[in-house]
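Blinded run. Sample ID left blank on purpose so nobody reads anything into the name before looking at the predicted structure. Input follows.
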Amino acid sequence: MDPVEVGRELSDHAERTAAHQRRDRILSITEAAMLSVVAVIAAWSGYSAAKWGTESSVELARASSTRTKASRADLQATQIRTLDSVSFNAVFAAYVSHNAQAYRVAVRRLRPGYRPAFAAWIATHPLTNPRAPPGPAFMPQYHIAQGDQAKALERRADTDFDKGEHAGGNSDKYVRITVFLATVLFLVGISSHFPRTGGRYGLIGIASALLVVALVQLLSLPGPPT
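Blinded prediction complete.
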């Protein structure tokens, strides 16, 4: 070959080699940068998933405890209501039989919280008034604090349960994002072992798409609870 042509071929080969080395260097830098960024984001996502999982467990445990308290308060309200009913039977028997002494004794035995409702019911003249309520328990003055407490505790338990479900959902979403990020790490990690540049570009492109999806989902989620 002509020395000029040989020199030109060597120069072209050197340029191609230098260009190839530049592409490899750029790809290597890109892969290292992606690995670093994704590793940090994956760690944050895993931490958030763990925090939301703990928050879910705490809220669900609180809901269970509150519901137990509500059941206990409702049982106490039922017992008090039964006691009021039994006490009223004795008072009513003395009232309809016009036994004043037995009536006074029976009234004194009424539960203090029951007496206002009973007095209001007596004021309606139930023996002669057909529109009178069936008993003191149907009067607006009849009130059992434990019953109201049971209802309030049930509402609080429902709220805590909803919070626990919401926190569990957030935890699952963070876990899903962590899986996406782990896939990105895998694709970027194996791309450097491909001898062909096209293969490396393809893997980095797929990893970049998954990273964008993960970031979009990550930005839509609330941060970890304090």
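Unblinding after everyone has recorded impressions. Helices lie at 3-96, 100-108, 115-122, 145-191, 197-219.
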